[in-house]
Every structure is written in structure tokens, then in C-alpha cells.
Amino acid sequence: MSAPILAVIGGGQLARMMQEEASVLGIHLRTLVEAPNGAAAQVTVDAPVGRADDADAVRALVAGAAAVTFEHEHQDSALLSRLQAEGLPVRPAPEALLLARDKLAMRREVEAAVLPQPAWTEIAGDAQEMRAQVRRFAAEHGWPVVVKTPRGGYDGHGVLMVDSAGLDHAEAASWLESTAAARAGHACAGAGGGGSLGGGAVTSLLVEEAVPFTRELAVLLARRPCGQIAVWPVIESVQSGGICVETVAPAPGLDPEAARHAVRIARTIAERADVTGVLAVELFAVEDSEGTRLYINELAMRPHNSGHWTQDGAVTSQFAQHLRAVLDLPLGATASIAPTTVMVNLLGGQTPAPADALARAMALDPQARIHLYGKRWRPGRKLGHVNLTTTATDPEGIAAARERARAVVAILRGES
Ligand SMILES: Nc1ncnc2c1ncn2[C@@H]1O[C@H](COP(=O)(O)OP(=O)(O)OP(=O)(O)O)[C@@H](O)[C@H]1O
Ligand SMILES: [Mg+2]
Fold it and tell me: What does the pLDDT read at residue 140?
């Protein structure tokens, strides 16, 4: 057996966790990292430093590789299309990746696929015109509304919940101004739009109704170029300040019909868009006496925070599966290995954790599976996560498991 080379663009924690599984499977990962001391570079032997939009760096990266894949969506799609045209397997392909990179493109595709999503509209023009467009949308769908930058957002950056007064507040106002300015500049400069990574200047914004969800769910699947699909159980995810903080797998008490519906939604997207690799579909669920309604929030085409639980709670982790899928290797089983798995993210606390935090966290709960990314501390930054499996499926038992995982994370944050 000769080890296939898989090229990966991006050197954060997702590439780092791909490397863990690549080592196990004898796959040679070659990762284009932003800095020589980043999360992935610390553990990857073959980790050239370069930018994702540096054509020479990317060409050197993919030389001799069986395929190229990504750990983030902010890619130079023109460059990827050229490489694809030259015969390199780009997985997922740029046409599919666009749906994870551009929330407006995603909303249009979901509409074309007749899948459920929040009411939405695109706003563009000068700041005054955009304010009027938001007001018209809110008159129809109610306040508050959610304003999003179509590209470049992550962890809640690029998402604003605004009420009628909020439109004039600093952040919303500055978005409207800069979007209008970019559009004006774009019109003067002609095509091109700046050509920055992530798809150029933002010249319009996405506005959505604020869905009064009872909880957020996510469906994670992997798809091979040959069409094979494997789906993990639907999970519940909890966000705080736009950042995923906890997940519970499977989503406790979810109506089985709603779970099947969620899976159908994800499969439809994967097949229509010819997605290869891991696809995460974030959903809003409104659960009431009439049943469960689902709305698509957004898509990711790479291993995703909602799938970190699979490292310790499923037969095949999302990182191993992503490698298998993009190399067109047979997929692994996605069944859970425990009745419930909880995941709690470790976000940087207000001060760095003391030197003995890791030892104390380990001592507190030997069952906890601690994952650290080797990243420098910063308040709010994703530094790691803790997975914990439990035999419990009842609300009290699951709550207790969450408390245990939180207690471990609290020590790692330096809080106790
Ligand atoms: N239309 C909406 N209605 C209600 N809440 C919303 C809506 N859109 C976004 N949110 C809330 O904001 C969070 C972040 O939104 P979104 O997933 O679009 O942003 P993001 O920064 O791209 O996220 P990610 O970190 O997952 O890439 C959602 O998980 C949800 O809690
Ligand atoms: Mg999201």
C-alpha cells in the first residue's frame, strides 16, 4: 500500500484533527498553513506555509496529491476552478463550496430545491435604500430581523439581530455604509470586486426573519464522489453569542419523523449540489403542539463543530470520514457507540488557565475525553473541547453528563 497524499488548505484545529485520523489510516496529509506554529502545523510533518489565495503556494501544495480539500470555506474559487479544469480532484468542488461560502447563493439554492428556510431577502443600494428595504421586509415578517454578511462570517461574526431602532445603531449602520460603499466602488471599477479571499467585496446583504426556534439541530453526513452517503444521528447544538458551545448527540426527544425529515433535507442538498466530503446542515427547529417545523440555517462543507462528538461517540469520526470521502474510499459506519454523547467547547476565559489546569481537569473526570488544539489563549477563542459519553437518555441523566463535561471545561478555562 502506498500512502495517498491529500492536500488540505487551512491550518486550524479542523486540519489538526484531520491529521490525527490521517496518521491512523496511513494517509499523507500535506497542509497549507497560515503560520508555522498554528494548530495543524504543530502536528503535521508536511505543512508548507502560505496563503489560500497564493496561486504558487497552492500549486506547490497539490503537486502529486490525489485530491485537495479544505478546512474552511474562504477559498479562491477561480484558482480552484483552474486546478479542477487541469484534472485535479477538488473536493468539495468550487460550485458546491459556494453554497457554504455565500449565504445568498445558499438561500437561492435552498429555494430552488423547495426545502424549508426562513423568509429572506437580499438588500442592496445606498444605505438609505437598504434601510427602507429592511423596513419593508420587517413590515411583512415582523421585527426583529437578522441581517447577515453573505460571505466571510464565522462564529456569529457577520450576524446581527436588529429591531426597528437597531437599524441606526453603530454596527448595523456601519455594515450598511460599507456595503453601499463597496457596491459603489464595484460599479466604478467594473468587474472584479476587489478579488479578496472569500469572494470579493460584499455588495449586498442577506436579511432573514428571526425564527423563534425552540432549539437548533444539525445533520452531518459524508458523501463520496461515487455517490455513497453516510449520515450520523441528528444532534442538538446550543449557541451562545453566535458560537456553538455545546452539542448533544442524538438530539434528545426529537420526533423520529422530524429526524427523518432533517436527514432528507441534508441528502437532498448533498445530491443536488454534488457535495463531496463532510456536509453539515444547521437547522432551526420549532417544536410545538402542531409538530416540528424545520428551517435551514446554513451549510458547512468540511468537518464541523456539530460533529466533534463523533470522535468519541461514533464508530467513525467526522475527520476520518472526511478523508475517506474526499479520497473516494469506502465510508465508515456512522452509528453511535453510546446512547448519548455530549460535547462542550473550551472557549478562552478572561485570563489564561494556570499551568496545572490540564492535570486537574484530568483528575476531576477520568471518563472525559479532552481535545486541545494547541492554540494560544485569547478570551472567547475556541481552544479545545471535551466529549463525554453516557448511557443516559433521560433529561436528568443527560443534564448530569453536560454538567460533568462543563466542570472539566471550567477547570481548563482556569475558572476553578
Ligand atoms: N434567521 C435566524 N433566526 C434566529 N436566529 C438566527 C437566525 N440566523 C442566525 N441565528 C442565530 O445566530 C447563530 C449564528 O448564525 P449563522 O450560523 O448564520 O452564523 P455564522 O457566524 O456563519 O455561524 P458559524 O459559526 O456556524 O459559521 C445561529 O446559530 C442562530 O443561533
Ligand atoms: Mg452557523
Answer: 97
